[in-house]
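User: Teach me something about this protein's shape.
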Amino acid sequence: MNGKFFDLKKEKQDRMINAALKTFALHGYRHASTDDIVREASISKGLLFHYFESKLGVYSFIYDYSVRYTILELRSTIDRKEQDLFEIMRQTERARLQAMRGYPCMQLFLDRAMSEDVSEALLAVEEKRAALEEAYQEVEARIDYSLLPGDVDGEKLRRMLAFTVRGLMAERFQNASCQPEMLYQEICDYIDMTRRLVYRPAE
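Assistant: First, the predicted structure itself:
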């Protein structure tokens, strides 16, 4: 990447970043086109390649940018002393919301990248992918599953909620109705409903 990219006005930087995030989130690395990126960003192809020499260069940059941004939000939003599964999940989604306010497709892009199968793309982001996984593992390690009722498998419950969140995000994005604040509230509704079911008094 040409370091002068960050000399551009912030509005133009974000326009290019958001265009790339959306394109790769929708199509994956293999089928994403730089033509789609420049059209979405309303810039020339020459300008894109002035700052990023190739499609792989764009992909590597936005992955690195997304990981750094996400980790920063996780560390600044989640209470390090919190141990409750449901509260940690709420705070995790709050951190993602913070990122989505400026970059609506960032989380969807990162989720899509998890299933990427093009070797050059995988190799280009391997180190950053490991850093993101480590950041989430640090958060998950704080969860005290013993706070849950004895008959509840805490790890399965966490995974179930994580699948629900990813599904909601993908559905809202596909329907072009992904409003970060509304999505966050809907996710919290599912988390709170699950909490009530888990702690429902025995009849």
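Now, about its shape. Residues 60 and 125 are 6 Å apart (CA to CA). The chain has a mean pLDDT of 91. If you'd like, I can walk through any region in more detail.
User: That's plenty for now, thanks!
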